[in-house]
Design goal:
There is one protein chain. With about 90 residues, this protein is mostly helical. It is about 60% helix and about 0% strand. The longest helix has 23 residues. The chain is elongated.
Length: about 90
């Protein structure tokens, strides 16, 4: 993909997904593009359910690390299976 094609695709993505223009300047967006540009066989985008499950796992892991860092035993408790049933899937 050429630089010109990428710029066009990025602008179309901004418009189609109603993203703010600043999204292209966000460090995480730049990191994602850099990682994808080095992929030898392209990248696979996760579907909605897999993305939701990954976000829930990341959140649970973050809470567990926070719990360990704060040295708290049972104060931070979360049941991600309940959250998965109540969070609407788009």
């Amino acid at each position: 993909m050429t630089d010109k094609l990428f710029k066009q695709a990025a602008i179309e993505w901004l418009v189609a997904t109603d993203q703010p223009i600043q999204a292209l300047e966000h460090p995480k967006f730049k990191e994602m593009v850099d990682i994808a540009s080095h992929a030898t066989n392209g990248v696979k985008i996760l579907g909605r359910k897999a993305t939701h499950a990954k976000i829930m796992r990341m959140f649970k892991n973050h809470l567990m690390r926070l719990r360990n860092t704060l040295n708290v035993s049972n104060v931070l408790s979360i049941d991600c299976t309940v959250a998965q049933k109540t969070v609407p899937m788009f």
